[in-house]
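User: I'm new to structure prediction. If I give you an amino acid sequence, what do you actually give back? Let's try with this one:
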Amino acid sequence: MPLLKAKDVRAMRKEERVDKLKQLADELMHERGLSAMGGAPADPGKIRALRKQIARLLSVEREEEK
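Assistant: Good question. You get back a string of structure tokens that encode the predicted 3D arrangement of the chain. For your 66 residues, that looks like this:
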């Protein structure tokens, strides 16, 4: 899972951003499910990284609206 930089997100088309947002949200839900079931995460920082990437995408979407 490569990190998304704000510059890279701005370079994406709107459809690509929406698709990426859906993909990241699904992945976050999966990771949270594993964590809730008591499984030890393979990568402890993955949930935080996913949340940050989702926030970046939503921030750029909000910028585009204005």
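You can read the tokens as a compact description of the fold. Here is one thing that stands out. Residues 6-65 form a domain with the Helix Hairpins fold (CATH 1.10.287.310).
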